[in-house]
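Q: A small favour: would you put together sequence and structure tokens for a protein?
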Amino acid sequence: MPKITTVCVVDDANAMQKLGTKLLQSLGKEVCTARNGFEALRVIQVGSPDACFIDIEMPEMNGLQLVSILRNSKQYSTLPIAVLSGNSSPFDRQKGLLAGADFYLTKPFTKETLSKALTDMEALYEE
């Protein structure tokens, strides 16, 4: 089973970006970060992450737009993606999944939540 070693965290909130980075590093992952969708496109291209955690609500290009762009590209169409949001309604969850995300996580997240998401993301590589 392919291992996820590098993860991209895309979030405009500095505190959430730092928390995600700290928790992922504690799980033994290398982390690259971006503050919005445009920056994420550059970071993903350079860093070649094995998975992404993307905040939905960001300025300039939101997370759903970024997910859609990644899903419509040959290079990143199968990249495991979890979207992050403070909204937990079924409608918001459905929007995230319809945009092409594989998983929908609500904030605040924990080390256990991220660990389970990574395990689920690694399973996508088996399909």
About this structure: Residues 20 and 109 are 8 Å apart (CA to CA).
